[in-house]
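User: Can you predict the 3D structure for this chain?
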Amino acid sequence: MINNILLVDDDIMLINSLEAYLTSEGFMVSTVSTAREALKVIQERMPDLIVADIMMPDVDGYDLVRMLRLDDFMRAVPIILLTAKGMTDDRIKGYDLGCSAYLAKPFNPRELVSIINNLLSNREIVDKRIVSTLQPESDLLVKAQRIIGDLTHRELTILKLVVKGFMNKEIAANLNVSTRSVEKYVSRLLSKTSTRNRTELAQFIIGNKVSLIEGE
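Assistant: Here is the predicted structure, written as structure tokens:
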């Protein structure tokens, strides 16, 4: 499985370099230069891991971690903080807020990849343990599968693409329809599944192990 990494840093040269390196290592990478842009991207596609600089204009890396840890679905997403600072107090502040790892600039990109792989591996182990505790025929699963069974073919097609992490524009291009049309379908899916955003919608399907194969 290809993991999605979100890079958040206002240093364009660094972020372009990291994007190229992480892509060469087999990751799917999205980049933004501010924390506010990161929040918008996360609403569209939930990343598997976030790498964020601390020193950014407006909303800094600490504030980004604080906001993400208040979201139930983002609480478990690993966050690596990058900074030019190397003081112990700065690292402690990051860990207290909920960051997963701390890497001081300058650093070797190989070390970053090693940290990313370790965090993703640990998260996969935890996720498997959580899934193993779910009852496959629980009332929640039955209810979720019933909702999916009532979707139209087009709604189901768009839902599959949302779960895969496609953005509205990508879905529109894939299905040769307007972005506005996709937005209406996504809103309808949110309503039918009682979810608030695309992140919760994807988690609704993945967390309940709902089948998206028609006829099942």
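Strands lie at 4-8, 28-32, 49-53, 79-83, 101-104. The two ends are 24 Å apart (CA to CA).
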